[in-house]
Amino acid sequence: MVGPTAWGTTLAIHLARRGMPTVLAARTSEESAELNARRVNARRLPGVAFPPGLEVLPATQAVAGADLVCFAVPSRTLYANASAIAGAVAPDAALLSATKGIDVESGRRMSELLAEALPGRAVAALSGPNLSREIAAGMPGTTVIASRDGPLDALRAAFHTELLRVYTTEDIVGVEFGGALKNVIAIAAGMVDAFGYGDNAKAAIVTRGLAEMTRLGVAAGADPLTFQGLAGVGDLVATSYSPLSRNRRLGELLARGEPLESALRAIGETAEGATTVPAALRLAGRLGVELPITAGLHAILYDGVAPEAAVRALMAREPKRERA
What we know:
- With 324 residues, this protein is of the alpha/beta class.
- It folds into 2 domains: 6-170, Rossmann fold; 173-315, N-(1-d-carboxylethyl)-l-norvaline Dehydrogenase, domain 2, CATH 1.10.1040.
- Helices cover 51% and strands 11% of the residues.
- It is built from 15 helices and 7 strands.
- The chain has helices spanning 6-17, 29-38, 59-63, 78-84, 110-117, 132-136, 152-159, 172-195, 199-219, 230-241, 246-255, 260-267, 272-287, 292-302, 307-315; strands at 22-26, 54-58, 68-71, 94-97, 123-127, 141-147, 164-169.
- Helix 2 links the parallel strand 1 and strand 2.
- The longest helix is centred in the middle third of the chain and has 24 residues, at 172-195.
């Protein structure tokens, strides 16, 4: 498991609880020694003890000889992390992205970055309504694993339990875009909550946000039905409504006047939606897709537009048919 993030640590703990020999890849030997000694990731997942079968090693040692190499790192560092360990990853290892994002410069999905950094290997993606603290606490949940060339049955068997139900699909495009774009809409949902606009407005922003997600995903080659499933609306609902959601929290802080950098420091962990906003807009421009909510968020996050002014601009848009 590459990435001692909250989600990476959660997935490593989940697999180790299943009785599988699992290694969490740390960034340095010092970090691995500290995590092994403490048997808890106090910074990212406090209070959740490591199972006996979980070991922590520096990255190149952690992935050596592994049948499955899973990545749960920030999207902006995924390619660099994968390239750094390329020489240690077995040629027949399967790769699994648990990172939800879009590359800002190229518009590529995380699985595409993995395929470039580690060519010749089967690639899959894991996404869904998966708040790390709930999964780590053993609360019931579901997720989706998608791949066109990966061993879907084996991957499902590795992660599926009575408490984490795993579904599979070949629509990796839809699953990855659902996971990335719902973070954008969750920022807007958090702003609605902070403004006290009520449930009507919250329902509207989530529903019209789902329409944006679907438009861009379909233009990029996704099946529209994927956005009606766990990796689409399921993940969107969890991230837009849960107090555990970092992206929703980011929206709340922005609505209360916090500048972006200050808000991100207050959260203390990656809020992928902030990076996905410009990435989605660049890709939408190339594909000719309109994303009004995302564009409004970009104006707030990066152009200095007041949140209230962005809301007024959205509400003043010309009325149109709902499915337009």
